[in-house]
Structures are given as structure tokens and as C-alpha cells.
């Protein structure tokens, strides 16, 4: 699905800014920070204020196109395009490297929590924090 069609599919008006940001998110294999998004925009000649980028990301998050993860503090939030592949993350507390965890150990537990609580659970998110192998060696 092309970018304009995807935006329209989610009920979002297609603008140059939204198309550029969504393209960057879709092209990234890993979650990226707002500064990385801005650098990528600058590299292709799309200069935007941070406030514009934040507004676009908020819309994408509300429409369930992306996920936002807050690793350690809000200024380090990362954004990831939802490829309808369920995934979790390992986050290095020293260098900020994010590694995708294959598989999900929470499926059965999610069902139990739903039964016990009466909630209808529509999603979950898991981040594990620690030192990556590279930072362990330099520590």
C-alpha cells in the first residue's frame, strides 16, 4: 500500500509532512527517536519544526499506525511503524541500543489476566532494560 493510500485508509488527510514522516518510519528496521526522524527529514530536504513532527507522530499513534516506547525518559522516546508483527524490545540503559525480542511469552498470561479481570485486552507492550553486550565489555 502506498503512503497516500495508507494515510487515507486510516482517515488521515495526506500532507507532504505526514507522507515524509511515515516514509521514514516505514523505511526504518528499528524504532527511531524524534531526532533521528528529524535528521532523516533534513537529509532529504524536508525541514520541519520539532513541534510539527511531534504533532504528526501523535496523530499516527492515535490512529494505531505507530507505537511509541519511552525507554528511560520522555525525551528519549522511540517510534516504530506497526507492521502487524507483534514484537517487544531489549533496551540498553547505557547506549540506548534497541534490540527486537523474537516471539512473545505473554500470550497465555494475557488471556489469564483478561479472564481474571474482566478486561478485554487489545494489546500489550514489553520493554526489558539492561546493559547490552558491547556496554558490558566497556564497563
From TrEMBL:
A Pfam family this chain is assigned to: FUR
Residues that span the membrane, as ranges: none
Domain of life: Bacteria
Cofactor: Mn(2+); Fe(2+); Zn(2+)
UniProt-listed InterPro entries: FUR (IPR002481), Fur_C (IPR043135), WH-like_DNA-bd_sf (IPR036388), WH_DNA-bd_sf (IPR036390)
Residues reported in the UniProt entry to bind Fe cation: 86, 124
A Gene Ontology BP annotation from the UniProt entry: regulation of secondary metabolite biosynthetic process
A single GO molecular function term of this UniProt record: transcription cis-regulatory region binding
Residues that hold Zn(2+) according to the record: 92, 95, 132, 135
Regions annotated as coiled coil: none
UniProt KW keywords: DNA-binding, Iron, Metal-binding, Repressor, Transcription, Transcription regulation, Zinc
SUPFAM superfamilies hit by this protein: Winged helix' DNA-binding domain
UniProt KW Magnesium keyword: no
Cofactor note: Binds 1 Mn(2+) or Fe(2+) ion per subunit.
Family (UniProt): Belongs to the Fur family.
Protein name from the UniProt record: Transcriptional repressor
Organism, as annotated: Erysipelothrix amsterdamensis
Species lineage: Bacteria, Bacillati, Bacillota, Erysipelotrichia, Erysipelotrichales
Gene transcribed to yield this protein: zur
